[in-house]
Amino acid sequence: MTELLSVTDWHWVGDASSRLLFAVGAGALVGIEREYHGRPAGFRTHILVALGAAVVALISVQLPDLAAGKEAMTRIQVDPGRIASGVVTGIGFLGAGAIIRIGITARGLTTAASLWCMASVGMGFGFGLYALSIVGTLLMLFALFVLGGVERKLSKHWYKSVDVTMIGPDRSAGAVVDLVKEQGWRIIDLKLENQKTEHRLDVEFEVRLNSKKDVERLVSVLNRADFIERFRVS
User: Fold this and answer.
1) What is the pLDDT of residues 196-217, one digit of tens each?
2) Residue 164: beta bridge partners?
């Protein structure tokens, strides 16, 4: 108990508390942006990640004193970098849970990356690297708020999953493929399921569109095709 009190003096408590508060503040700022966009890992999640990483960093710094005491002649050698690497590895599992795979695309990659960065910032505050951590937080906010708007304005390909059902003796997957290629789009993957007794052909494919506006045109093109009985775009 005496050794513990010798480590946790008021000066250290105040310094540690300020580090934790900075980490919580950084997590809150980034978490607000994720919460605003309706992401599952939002406000509280980013706060807890930053806070937890900061606590681990503080423990790694104080672990030698807690184990051997300040006045001990021999100290236990603890590498804070090894403890930090464990935090980064653990955050990887949390980030993986934020990623949702939809067809050939994935959602939640930005949230997973923000959690990983938030853990790094939290450890920075825990180690007392205020300037580095503050700059890191500001750059994260810049990437999420400013560059997010720039990214949405960039012209880029869009990927959609399409399920098409055709009924009749003249059903053919080639007709669907030709219909898509006529629009200047590209089919990435194609799966077929043919039911001979019901004269039914199910075609499932991933299509690469040239822009977001092509999504509405894709629905319109499929709707006008007489040989398509049913379709779904997701």
Assistant:
1) 777 788 888 888 888 878 888 8
2) 203, 231
Question: Could you confirm whether domain 158-233 is CATH 3.40.50.620?
Answer: no
pTM for the structure as a whole: 0.64
Instruction: Provide DSSP, 95-110.
Output: HHHT-EEETTEEE-HH
**Strands of the sheet with 158-167, listed across from one edge:** 186-195, 200-209, 158-167, 230-233
Query: Please, what sign has the CA dihedral across residues 7, 12, 17, 18?
Result: negative
Element (H, E) at 40: none
In this structure, what token pair is assigned to residue 132? 């580095």
CB 69 within 8 A of CB 6: yes
What residue segments make up the domains of the chain, in order of their start? 2-153, 158-233
